[in-house]
Amino acid sequence: MSEPNVTDVTAPASQPDNNLKRSITGRLLFFYVLGDVLGSGIYVLIGSVAGAVGGAFWIAFAVGVSVATITGLAYAELVTKYPQAAGAALYVNKAFKNRAFTFFIAFCMLSASFAAAGSLATGFASYFIEVWGLPPELLLALVFILVLAAINFIGITESVVANLVMTIVEVGGLIIVMIIGVIYIAQGKADFGTLVEFDTGGKSPLFAVVAGVALAFFAMTGFENAANVAEETVEPQRTFPRALVGGMVVAGILYVLVAMTSALVVPIGKLAGSDAALLEVIKADILPIPVGIMTIAFAIIAMIAITNTCLVALVTESRILYGMAREDVVPGVFSKVHKNRRSPWVALIFAALIISALLLSGADLERLVAVTVIFTLFIYALVIIAALKLRHQDVDEGTFSAPLILLVVGILGNAMLFGYVVYTDPTSLIYCAALLGVGAVLFVFEHFFGNRSSSASDMGV
Amino acid sequence: MHILIATDGSKQSLTAARQFKSFADPQKVSDISIVAVIRPLAAVSFADDLSNLTPKQVAEQSLSFRDAAAGALSVIAAEFANWGPKIHKRIRSGSPANEIIKAAKQLDVGLVVVASGGRGISSAVLMGSTAQRVQNYAPCPVLVVRPKPRKKAKASATS
Question: What would the DSSP string read from start to end of B22-46?
């Protein structure tokens, strides 16, 4: 293992590559994606989706999952070309080469993640209250965010093993739900007619499904965080597309099956009215285990799932802020790293504050989900456009190439959903504007008061 | 003897390297491996406070933690330029303490040099301090370079 004598200390940065050791294998990446996707969705908002569509709400999950997975293909293609930690901002920068626009996208990513973390905190509090009945919910959500920020600061969840265990627990929870479904069907109680019922309050079924998809879409967000570990993935060109798309497809299948089970086992009205809807499936008391124990166990599983995804959201946020501070587009304090823990503590505190502000603003779960979805759809559509624009650039034999037709379908799907959410919930736009306003303030502040250490032309976060 | 010097990109790790150099005999050191560990799941996988001291390098490129690690390695390596022993720069990925210990075993080193950034409670209370774990599990002697106490140090009451 000996290398040449490095007396020339100006050796290129590639020098250490003689001893390249990357730690994220394809399998670990698969579980990272799966865990991240699962936690964001079904535990939190299955009730809302059921309420929007009726018994056939699994269709909403199926469509949402498909559009997201197509977007995942575009991400996979771009990651195989640019395996760096920045994600969408980097791709948009490569495709459009416009500094201001890149900043805008980076801040959209940040805002999406803030709103997502807010939704997750609300979902966490709902499950917590179901078990321990400790109001007030808002306080719980705030404490949850603060604790997660502290955990990220200390860094105890950085263990790859912890991540793996949490993902297995998350999948375990959904498998419990499916076992209940199988038993229920075996007992002959299932009425399969429910699965094609629309309860849309006078709207056309198509409209109802779109409404459901817009919500269900939230369940698939989080996969883009896989870019966080792109740089540390073993053979990214080979493993990344497989692990990313594989994780999403498995998550999608689980979602559809769980949605079907819930529709069969619990009356739709009850699902729609519940803040912790998957618990209703458990409470149907079908397993031969005391329902009290099962309820607590399942609520804990749900909370672990939500926590896992929310932790990753905070990592992503502080990382985006850190990156932007290093590029001199937001004030430099955000790149401050604690000298002992090596965590970006200013960025973490800022993220916790913004999420708390969102929670205190009185926005309910569905509003926060809508805000997340608006930002995410916009980013996803742009990422696909970037993938198309960069199609013939930086290609080598290992580059993954997504089917063109699917990418076009993906853009249309994202654009259509975007239009729908904006049309039906215009109030969300106020929240979007407020979040972007925060970004504008940071940008202007840095522009006039920051001491620019360089005149960078290239900006990727 | 082969020496392993770990860096997390902190200034304290540079201080540790200098501390080692201040008393070590270059005749007796055959190789120095400088090791930087990237933490893939951390908010900031690797923060390079060392080459930041010359600010023009920042913002040239999109955020790459590998570049950051390489930057820190180069700064530490520069400390030992023309000192004698062969210098190896190594980047690893994973949990810092584990990777440092693994590298120490693989390279069969005679001494590990690490910095401990902790003063007072933060290092005593919080688990997972890298320096502490390296001390406990390293296959060889460990030099832990602690920061200088603050002006009126109360002799680390927590330890």
Answer: HH--TTT--EEEEEEEE-TTSSSS-
3-state secondary structure of A453: coil
Q: Which residues contact B2 (CB under 8 A, 6 or more apart)?
A: B29, B30, B31, B32, B33, B107, B108, B109, B110
Q: Report the C-alpha gap between A7 and A384 in whole angstroms.
A: 46
- The vertex-A320 CA angle with A63 and B60, nearest 5°, equals 125
Give yes or no for a contact between A291 and A211, defined as CB atoms under 8 angstroms apart: no
Mean pLDDT by runs of 10 across the 159 residues of chain B is 92 91 90 92 85 50 78 92 90 90 93 78 57 89 83 47
Complex-level ipTM: 0.81
Q: Does A21 touch chain B (CB under 8 A)?
A: yes
Q: Rounded to a whole number, what is the distance in Å from the CA of A441 to chain B's nearest CA?
A: 21
Long-range pairs for B69-72: beta carbons < 8 A, 24 or more residues apart:
B69/A16, B69/B9, B69/B36, B69/B37, B69/B38, B70/A13, B70/A14, B70/A15, B70/A16, B70/B36, B71/A13, B71/B9, B72/B7, B72/B8, B72/B9, B72/B13, B72/B36, B72/B46, B72/B48
Partner B contacted by A161 (CB < 8 A): no
| Predicted structure pTM score | 0.85
Count CA within 13 A, CB hemisphere, residue A379: 31
Q: Does A322 touch chain B (CB under 8 A)?
A: yes
| Coil, strand or helix at B88 | strand
Q: Which of residues 208-267 of A touch B (CB under 8 A)?
A: 228-229, 231-232
Q: Are A55 and A194 in contact (CB under 8 A)?
A: yes
Shortest CB distance from B43 goes to which of A11, A22, A318?
A: A318
* Distance (Å, whole) CA A15 – CA B89: 7
Residue A412 CB-density burial (10 A; 0-12 exposed, 13-18 middle, 19+ buried): middle
A263 touches A107 (CB < 8 A): no
B2-7/B86-93 β-pairing: unpaired
Q: How far apart are CA B46 and CA B70, in angstroms?
A: 10
